[in-house]
Amino acid sequence: MYELWAKVKEKEQAVWVWRVCEAKTKIIPVIQLGARTQEMAYSVVHELKSRLKVGSVPVFSSDGLKHYFYALTAHFREWVVVEGEKKLVWLMVSLFQYAQVIKQQRGYRLVGVEHRMLWGNVEEYRSRLKANGLSGNINTSFVERANLTIRQSVSKLTRRTWGPAQYTTELEDHLYWWLAYYHFAHPHESLRVTLPEPFLRKGKQRPRLYQKVTPAMAAGLVTRRWSVKELISYPLP
After folding, report:
1. Within this chain, do residues 118 and 25 fall inside the same structural domain, yes or no?
2. What is the pTM for the complete model shown?
3. Crossing angle of helices 67-75/38-51, nearest 10°?
Protein backbone atom coordinates (compact mmCIF):
# COMPACT_ATOMS: atom_id res chain seq x y z
CA MET A 1 0.00 0.00 0.00
CA TYR A 2 1.41 3.34 -1.01
CA GLU A 3 0.55 6.81 -2.29
CA LEU A 4 2.12 9.41 -4.59
CA TRP A 5 1.29 13.07 -5.13
CA ALA A 6 -0.14 14.60 -8.30
CA LYS A 7 -0.51 18.22 -9.36
CA VAL A 8 -4.02 19.27 -10.44
CA LYS A 9 -4.69 22.88 -11.47
CA GLU A 10 -8.15 23.07 -9.89
CA LYS A 11 -6.73 22.14 -6.46
CA GLU A 12 -4.73 24.49 -4.27
CA GLN A 13 -3.06 21.50 -2.63
CA ALA A 14 -1.60 18.36 -4.18
CA VAL A 15 -3.90 15.42 -4.89
CA TRP A 16 -2.63 12.01 -3.80
CA VAL A 17 -2.91 8.81 -5.82
CA TRP A 18 -3.61 5.98 -3.36
CA ARG A 19 -3.12 2.43 -4.56
CA VAL A 20 -2.69 -1.17 -3.44
CA CYS A 21 -0.39 -3.59 -5.29
CA GLU A 22 -0.38 -7.39 -4.94
CA ALA A 23 3.26 -8.46 -4.93
CA LYS A 24 2.98 -11.84 -6.69
CA THR A 25 0.72 -11.07 -9.67
CA LYS A 26 1.39 -7.28 -9.74
CA ILE A 27 -2.38 -6.69 -9.81
CA ILE A 28 -3.46 -3.21 -8.61
CA PRO A 29 -6.90 -3.89 -7.11
CA VAL A 30 -7.46 -0.37 -5.75
CA ILE A 31 -6.52 3.06 -7.03
CA GLN A 32 -8.12 6.24 -5.69
CA LEU A 33 -7.54 9.98 -5.82
CA GLY A 34 -7.88 12.17 -2.75
CA ALA A 35 -6.24 13.98 0.13
CA ARG A 36 -3.71 12.33 2.43
CA THR A 37 -6.21 11.85 5.25
CA GLN A 38 -7.55 9.15 7.52
CA GLU A 39 -10.87 9.23 5.68
CA MET A 40 -9.14 8.36 2.40
CA ALA A 41 -7.22 5.53 4.06
CA TYR A 42 -10.54 4.06 5.28
CA SER A 43 -11.96 4.37 1.75
CA VAL A 44 -8.98 2.57 0.17
CA VAL A 45 -8.98 -0.31 2.67
CA HIS A 46 -12.78 -0.61 2.48
CA GLU A 47 -12.63 -1.02 -1.31
CA LEU A 48 -9.75 -3.48 -0.99
CA LYS A 49 -11.65 -5.68 1.46
CA SER A 50 -14.70 -5.69 -0.83
CA ARG A 51 -12.52 -7.09 -3.62
CA LEU A 52 -10.94 -9.85 -1.54
CA LYS A 53 -12.25 -13.38 -1.44
CA VAL A 54 -14.40 -13.96 1.63
CA GLY A 55 -12.16 -15.02 4.50
CA SER A 56 -8.97 -13.97 2.73
CA VAL A 57 -6.48 -12.08 4.92
CA PRO A 58 -3.30 -10.97 3.08
CA VAL A 59 -0.11 -9.84 4.77
CA PHE A 60 0.29 -6.08 4.44
CA SER A 61 3.20 -3.68 4.15
CA SER A 62 3.20 0.07 3.64
CA ASP A 63 5.21 3.21 4.19
CA GLY A 64 5.17 4.93 7.58
CA LEU A 65 1.86 6.74 7.11
CA LYS A 66 -0.07 6.16 10.36
CA HIS A 67 -3.48 6.27 8.65
CA TYR A 68 -2.98 2.77 7.24
CA PHE A 69 -2.76 1.17 10.69
CA TYR A 70 -6.09 2.55 11.87
CA ALA A 71 -7.83 1.72 8.59
CA LEU A 72 -6.53 -1.85 8.45
CA THR A 73 -7.19 -2.68 12.09
CA ALA A 74 -10.72 -1.31 11.75
CA HIS A 75 -11.56 -3.55 8.79
CA PHE A 76 -9.84 -6.84 9.61
CA ARG A 77 -11.68 -7.72 12.81
CA GLU A 78 -14.27 -10.34 13.71
CA TRP A 79 -16.65 -11.26 16.53
CA VAL A 80 -15.05 -14.00 18.63
CA VAL A 81 -16.32 -16.13 21.49
CA VAL A 82 -13.93 -15.65 24.43
CA GLU A 83 -13.95 -17.96 27.40
CA GLY A 84 -15.30 -16.20 30.48
CA GLU A 85 -17.04 -13.48 28.46
CA LYS A 86 -20.84 -13.42 28.18
CA LYS A 87 -20.85 -11.47 24.93
CA LEU A 88 -18.93 -11.80 21.68
CA VAL A 89 -15.69 -9.82 21.59
CA TRP A 90 -14.62 -7.72 18.60
CA LEU A 91 -11.00 -8.84 17.96
CA MET A 92 -8.42 -8.76 15.16
CA VAL A 93 -8.53 -11.75 12.83
CA SER A 94 -5.81 -14.23 13.75
CA LEU A 95 -4.09 -14.17 10.32
CA PHE A 96 -3.69 -10.41 10.18
CA GLN A 97 -0.05 -9.32 9.73
CA TYR A 98 1.11 -5.77 9.07
CA ALA A 99 4.56 -4.20 8.73
CA GLN A 100 5.89 -0.78 7.75
CA VAL A 101 9.01 0.30 5.87
CA ILE A 102 10.07 3.74 7.09
CA LYS A 103 12.70 5.48 4.97
CA GLN A 104 14.74 8.31 6.38
CA GLN A 105 15.92 10.89 3.87
CA ARG A 106 18.20 13.89 4.06
CA GLY A 107 17.33 16.07 1.12
CA TYR A 108 17.11 13.68 -1.83
CA ARG A 109 19.48 11.18 -0.25
CA LEU A 110 18.38 7.99 1.53
CA VAL A 111 20.22 7.75 4.85
CA GLY A 112 18.39 4.92 6.61
CA VAL A 113 15.60 2.33 6.44
CA GLU A 114 13.63 1.02 9.41
CA HIS A 115 11.48 -2.12 9.24
CA ARG A 116 8.73 -2.00 11.84
CA MET A 117 6.30 -4.84 12.63
CA LEU A 118 3.08 -3.21 13.80
CA TRP A 119 0.92 -6.30 14.15
CA GLY A 120 1.79 -9.98 14.16
CA ASN A 121 4.91 -12.10 14.35
CA VAL A 122 7.92 -11.35 12.15
CA GLU A 123 8.79 -15.00 11.51
CA GLU A 124 5.21 -15.87 10.58
CA TYR A 125 5.09 -12.81 8.32
CA ARG A 126 8.24 -13.93 6.51
CA SER A 127 7.09 -17.55 6.20
CA ARG A 128 3.78 -16.52 4.63
CA LEU A 129 5.62 -14.43 2.05
CA LYS A 130 8.01 -17.29 1.24
CA ALA A 131 5.07 -19.68 0.90
CA ASN A 132 3.83 -17.47 -1.95
CA GLY A 133 7.16 -17.52 -3.79
CA LEU A 134 8.46 -14.18 -2.46
CA SER A 135 11.75 -13.43 -0.74
CA GLY A 136 10.23 -13.12 2.73
CA ASN A 137 11.72 -9.68 3.31
CA ILE A 138 9.62 -6.83 4.65
CA ASN A 139 9.63 -4.27 1.85
CA THR A 140 7.52 -2.01 -0.34
CA SER A 141 9.71 -2.33 -3.44
CA PHE A 142 6.94 -3.70 -5.68
CA VAL A 143 4.53 -0.87 -5.06
CA GLU A 144 7.36 1.69 -5.17
CA ARG A 145 8.39 0.35 -8.57
CA ALA A 146 4.78 0.86 -9.64
CA ASN A 147 5.28 4.57 -8.84
CA LEU A 148 7.77 4.87 -11.68
CA THR A 149 5.59 2.81 -14.02
CA ILE A 150 2.57 5.07 -13.36
CA ARG A 151 4.57 8.27 -13.78
CA GLN A 152 6.08 7.02 -17.05
CA SER A 153 2.74 5.82 -18.39
CA VAL A 154 0.42 8.67 -17.34
CA SER A 155 1.73 11.93 -18.79
CA LYS A 156 -0.21 14.04 -16.31
CA LEU A 157 1.79 12.49 -13.45
CA THR A 158 5.20 13.13 -15.01
CA ARG A 159 7.40 15.33 -12.84
CA ARG A 160 7.85 18.90 -14.11
CA THR A 161 5.30 18.29 -16.85
CA TRP A 162 3.97 21.08 -19.07
CA GLY A 163 0.55 19.48 -19.08
CA PRO A 164 -0.80 18.75 -15.58
CA ALA A 165 -4.41 17.70 -15.26
CA GLN A 166 -6.92 20.53 -15.21
CA TYR A 167 -9.43 18.64 -13.07
CA THR A 168 -9.36 15.65 -10.72
CA THR A 169 -11.94 13.81 -12.85
CA GLU A 170 -9.69 14.19 -15.89
CA LEU A 171 -6.75 12.61 -14.06
CA GLU A 172 -9.01 9.89 -12.66
CA ASP A 173 -10.23 8.91 -16.15
CA HIS A 174 -6.66 8.78 -17.40
CA LEU A 175 -5.61 6.59 -14.47
CA TYR A 176 -8.46 4.10 -14.99
CA TRP A 177 -7.69 3.81 -18.70
CA TRP A 178 -4.03 3.12 -17.87
CA LEU A 179 -5.08 0.60 -15.21
CA ALA A 180 -7.07 -1.41 -17.76
CA TYR A 181 -4.17 -1.34 -20.22
CA TYR A 182 -1.68 -2.29 -17.47
CA HIS A 183 -3.72 -5.31 -16.36
CA PHE A 184 -4.80 -6.77 -19.70
CA ALA A 185 -2.53 -5.55 -22.52
CA HIS A 186 0.89 -4.65 -21.10
CA PRO A 187 3.15 -7.61 -20.17
CA HIS A 188 5.06 -7.33 -16.92
CA GLU A 189 8.73 -8.24 -17.29
CA SER A 190 8.97 -10.02 -13.92
CA LEU A 191 5.98 -12.26 -14.72
CA ARG A 192 7.33 -13.78 -17.94
CA VAL A 193 7.40 -17.58 -18.15
CA THR A 194 10.16 -19.69 -19.73
CA LEU A 195 8.81 -21.74 -22.66
CA PRO A 196 9.35 -25.53 -22.56
CA GLU A 197 10.97 -25.25 -25.98
CA PRO A 198 12.26 -22.16 -27.85
CA PHE A 199 9.70 -20.81 -30.32
CA LEU A 200 11.30 -20.44 -33.77
CA ARG A 201 10.45 -17.25 -35.64
CA LYS A 202 10.71 -16.30 -39.29
CA GLY A 203 13.85 -14.96 -40.92
CA LYS A 204 16.87 -14.06 -38.81
CA GLN A 205 14.89 -13.35 -35.66
CA ARG A 206 16.20 -15.01 -32.53
CA PRO A 207 14.03 -17.82 -31.08
CA ARG A 208 11.58 -16.66 -28.44
CA LEU A 209 12.48 -18.10 -25.05
CA TYR A 210 9.74 -16.60 -22.88
CA GLN A 211 5.99 -16.14 -22.88
CA LYS A 212 4.90 -12.60 -22.04
CA VAL A 213 2.46 -12.45 -19.14
CA THR A 214 0.20 -9.60 -18.01
CA PRO A 215 -0.98 -9.12 -14.40
CA ALA A 216 -4.48 -10.26 -15.41
CA MET A 217 -3.00 -13.49 -16.83
CA ALA A 218 -0.95 -14.06 -13.68
CA ALA A 219 -4.09 -13.62 -11.56
CA GLY A 220 -6.05 -16.09 -13.71
CA LEU A 221 -8.54 -13.49 -14.98
CA VAL A 222 -7.69 -14.13 -18.65
CA THR A 223 -5.75 -16.79 -20.53
CA ARG A 224 -3.91 -14.59 -23.01
CA ARG A 225 -2.64 -11.08 -23.55
CA TRP A 226 -5.24 -8.70 -24.99
CA SER A 227 -4.58 -6.25 -27.79
CA VAL A 228 -5.43 -2.57 -27.27
CA LYS A 229 -8.19 -2.92 -29.88
CA GLU A 230 -9.77 -5.77 -27.91
CA LEU A 231 -9.51 -3.75 -24.72
CA ILE A 232 -11.23 -0.61 -26.01
CA SER A 233 -13.92 -2.59 -27.86
CA TYR A 234 -14.81 -4.96 -25.00
CA PRO A 235 -18.56 -4.69 -24.33
CA LEU A 236 -19.40 -3.19 -20.95
CA PRO A 237 -22.40 -4.39 -18.91
Report:
1. yes
2. 0.84
3. 40
